[in-house]
Write a structure and sequence with these properties.
- The chain is of the alpha/beta class.
- Helices cover 38% and strands 17% of the residues.
- It has 12 helices and 12 strands.
- Helix 1 runs parallel beside helix 12 (278-298) and helix 5 packs across helix 6.
- The longest helix is centred in the last third of the chain and has 21 residues, at 278-298.
- The structure holds 3-phosphoglyceric acid.
């Protein structure tokens, strides 16, 4: 019997796990769960006899791959796959996939939860401001960016986007103003929401020069990855510009320093919450399970990352 391991340091909702089990049961596979693990050793042990692995942001590095003697496929139930060592997978001919789009609405909704909380002064009882008529900049117009644009229009925001890999015509077709560079996006907007992946190109790319272009009272929202921020430079900018705010769903390495130095201008969720909804868990988890069955039974490699 083939074994599928779901290894989630941050567990899926029960309804999502039930949905995954339905798919694996129907395929005649066994399902093992490793949730809320605190030590990598637990993952190394659990993965030893797994044929397939479903993870979230859990790190699947060369050591995990080496411990996974039977592994044929790993699926990151989510979008960003910076946690997967694709070379290590390829070296063992293990197929790696993600489930693009499945948790996008969940992340987009959180952006607005964070924004309303911020413009209402963290609900401290004082008068805040509204989002309506403010200029929102979306950096990277992928699945999450597109959902952010849709919700922003409901708030009556004026929406702009930049994406190095998405043609302006496609951005404009979604009813969003396309700008020609990320600098132009920060120059134009009151709020910038980050939706770039963490890659060689983007790591530390959100730096002093870029963020300093935000208008007076500007807000930077990060529901993407902490690695894209140059934390040192952002701290130094927030020090110089007392009007700016940084709101994030991914605690920076320098969280304690941000929190201590910028009270009222900095907020980080205690745990990354963007994709933490029953719907997102179910969509991404079941998609991952179906992709595993599709690959193991029929060789379907749609969404393969390491081609
Ligand atoms: C993603 O890349 O899909 C999101 O960042 C969600 O990550 P998570 O599954 O760790 O919550």
């Amino acid at each position: 019997m083939k074994k599928v391991l779901v290894a989630t340091e941050k567990p899926f909702s029960k309804v999502a796990v039930d949905g995954i089990k339905k798919v694996t049961d129907a395929a005649g596979y066994g399902l093992a769960l490793l949730e809320k693990y605190t030590d990598k050793k637990q993952l190394l042990q659990a993965v030893a006899d797994a044929d397939a692995l479903i993870v979230r942001s859990d790190k699947v590095d060369a050591e995990v791959i080496a411990a996974a003697h039977n592994l044929k496929i790993v699926v990151r139930a989510g979008a960003g796959f910076d946690n997967l060592d694709l070379d290590a997978c390829s070296a063992r001919k293990i197929v790696a996939m993600n489930t693009p789009g499945q948790n996008a609405n969940s992340v987009a909704e959180l952006v607005f939860g964070l924004l309303v909380y911020t413009v209402r002064n963290f609900f401290n009882g004082t008068s805040g401001t509204e989002l309506k008529d403010k200029k929102l900049g979306i950096l990277a117009f992928g699945n999450v960016g597109r959902n952010v644009a849709r919700v922003a229009k409901g708030f009556g925001m004026d929406v702009y986007a930049y994406d190095a890999y998405c043609p302006a015509s496609s951005i404009e077709a979604a009813g969003v103003h396309a700008v020609e560079s990320q600098e132009a996006l920060f120059d134009t907007c009151d709020v910038v929401s980050l939706h770039i992946p963490a890659t060689q190109e983007t790591i530390h790319s959100i730096n002093f020069d870029l963020v300093s272009r935000l208008k007076k009272g500007g807000i930077l929202v990060n529901t993407a990855r902490k690695e894209v921020i140059d934390e040192k430079e952002l701290i130094s900018l927030l020090q110089q510009r007392a009007d700016l705010k940084y709101i994030t769903d991914i605690k920076p390495d320098a969280h304690d320093e941000f929190a201590a130095r910028f009270p009222g201008r900095y907020f980080a969720t205690p745990k990354k919450m963007g994709a933490q909804t029953a719907e997102a868990n179910t969509n991404a988890g079941i998609a991952a399970a179906n992709q595993i069955v599709g690959y193991l039974e029929n060789g379907i490699t749609k969404f393969q990352l390491n081609k």
